[in-house]
């Protein structure tokens, strides 16, 4: 299955935004560089309060927090995007209930939203790594690895890093009871 095939299906950003919400996102983009971005954040939060289930609003808010290096806030937004997209896809148990069979089924009628969920999961995994939560990152990234058999989402290096960090944490947790020789 090609995770990049969106032929004939509407993308999340194709959904029309209410005029006021669209204007707030445009204002945020214009104000981003001024006053430390405070007015941009306010505009985005107002857009979120007006349209809390619009993925375009969540993506704008996520990007704002990410580029402001507010990774905890970006992760909260990523989790919201994951929850909404999982709900809209009928995944009552969230992304954890996604397997190859369900992915194939969803790809038949909702590939763009399915891919959005997968990319939000990748983004959340990356943020977990940046926040030094390797175990949580690994759970997300291993789920993606099982689903993306063709490697279209580009998670290989993130997955290797997460596995390495989890191993290092396990070694550190063992204390003096475990000694590891490393090749140089």
Write a concise keyword list for the protein shown above.
184 residues, mainly alpha, Serine Threonine Protein Phosphatase 5, Tetratricopeptide repeat, 0% strand
Q: Which oligomeric state applies?
A: single chain
Structural class: mainly alpha
Number of strand segments: 0
Round the mean pLDDT to the nearest integer and report it: 89
Distance between the termini: 40 Å
Beta-strand share of residues: under 5%
**CATH uppermost class:** Mainly Alpha
Look at the structure and name the CATH superfamily: Tetratricopeptide repeat domain
The biggest sheet amounts to: none
Q: How helical, in percent, are the residues?
A: 55-70%
Number of helices: 7
- Fold-level CATH name: Serine Threonine Protein Phosphatase 5, Tetratricopeptide repeat
Q: Could you give the order of the helices and strands?
A: HHHHHHH
Low-confidence stretches: none
Quick one: overall form? flat
Number of domains: 1
Computed Rg: 19 Å
Give the second-level CATH assignment, the architecture.
Answer: Alpha Horseshoe
Organism: Thiorhodovibrio frisius
Protein name: Tetratricopeptide repeat protein
What would you note in describing this structure?
The protein has helices at 19-31, 38-50, 55-67, 71-88, 100-130, 134-147, 156-174. The chain has a single domain (12-146, 154-177), classed as Tetratricopeptide repeat domain (Serine Threonine Protein Phosphatase 5, Tetratricopeptide repeat, Alpha Horseshoe). It has 7 helices and no strands. Helices cover 66% and strands 0% of the residues. Helix 3 (55-67) packs antiparallel against helix 4. By secondary structure, it is mostly helical. It is flat, with a radius of gyration of 19 Å. The longest helix is centred in the middle third of the chain and has 31 residues, at 100-130. The protein starts with 18 loop residues before the first helix and ends in a 10-residue tail after the last helix. It comes from Thiorhodovibrio frisius. This is Tetratricopeptide repeat protein.
